[in-house]
């Protein structure tokens, strides 16, 4: 379980999170939504210890996260923008991340799933955006951790890769994992999520099922429900 208590984070004078309280139970897919700049990535990075909040606590499975970051061994993360050196080859990068992590990985299955066999000797600089994203997805899923955090996983993916990603996420959920995901693609969110967490003006504005959100807003689908909240709040 992931628990966030009274999280506050500002960058300079810019207050981003102003008292986030959130409990994510074990097992299931939870979509973190909110307008651009609402602090989704900042919240995710706080869970990962990559952002230091002014105030607040994060607990993973009942234990407060420690600045030494050892708890991250049980978390897999796909960053919104992964900045690996462009002169690294795909195979080299995968090996480097495996060596750093020091645990077993199932990269071969994922390389096949995303059709990356022909790219293993290519340098990252020479890959298209979508192919780079597929490599990042391999890195994010290959360690089989119980918690997976995906920041904009659909970015740049073609429809085949998108279908493969959805199947992969469903398979990982079936293993009992907890998956946190951000996305601006509402059809994707609608298809995969068990619950929605909506961030607005530094706090959790809504947490619940898509059905509950539709009922709360009186709208026909998630896209309209989100648009309704944003318009109502001038966001
Ligand atoms: N390192 C930083 N230094 C200064 N400001 C930052 C930093 N990181 C993020 N911000 C600012 O914090 C705010 C929240 O950013 P964040 O990336 O968390 O939003 P988001 O909800 O993930 O946005 P998006 O939907 O566009 O990905 C933005 O205004 C952003 O410019």
From TrEMBL:
Record-linked PROSITE patterns: ABC_TRANSPORTER_2
Start and end residues of each ABC transporter domain: 2-226
InterPro entries per UniProt: AAA+_ATPase, ABC_transporter-like_ATP-bd, ABC_Transporter_VariousFunc, P-loop_NTPase
Alphabetized Pfam families for the sequence: ABC_tran (PF00005)
Protein name: Copper ABC transporter ATP-binding protein
Keywords, comma-separated and alphabetical: ATP-binding, Nucleotide-binding, Transport
Domain of life assignment: Bacteria
PANTHER family from the UniProt entry: ABC TRANSPORTER ATP-BINDING PROTEIN ALBC-RELATED
Gene Ontology molecular-function annotations: ATP binding; ATP hydrolysis activity
Claim: Magnesium is one of the keywords in the record: no
Keyword Transport attached: yes
């Amino acid at each position: 379980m992931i628990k966030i208590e009274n999280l506050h984070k500002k960058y300079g004078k810019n207050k981003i999170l102003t008292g986030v309280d959130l409990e994510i139970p074990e097992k299931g897919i939870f979509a973190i939504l909110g307008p651009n700049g609402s602090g989704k990535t900042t919240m995710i990075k706080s869970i990962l210890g990559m952002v230091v909040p002014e105030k607040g606590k994060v607990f993973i499975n009942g234990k407060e996260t420690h600045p030494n970051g050892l708890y991250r061994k049980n978390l897999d993360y796909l960053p919104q923008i992964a900045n690996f050196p462009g002169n690294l080859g795909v195979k080299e990068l995968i090996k480097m991340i495996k060596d750093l992590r020091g645990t077993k990985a199932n990269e071969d299955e994922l390389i096949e799933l995303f059709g990356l066999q022909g790219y293993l000797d290519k340098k990252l600089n020479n890959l298209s955006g979508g192919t780079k994203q597929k490599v990042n997805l391999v890195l994010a899923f290959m360690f089989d951790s119980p918690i997976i955090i995906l920041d904009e996983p659909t970015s740049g993916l073609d429809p085949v890769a998108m279908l493969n990603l959805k199947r992969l996420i469903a398979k990982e959920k079936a293993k009992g994992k907890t998956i946190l995901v951000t996305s601006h693609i509402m059809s994707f969110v609608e298809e995969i999520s068990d619950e929605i967490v909506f961030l607005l003006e530094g706090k959790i504005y809504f947490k619940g099922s898509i059905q509950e959100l539709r009922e709360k807003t009186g709208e026909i689908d998630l896209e309209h429900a989100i648009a309704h909240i944003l318009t109502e709040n001038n966001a």
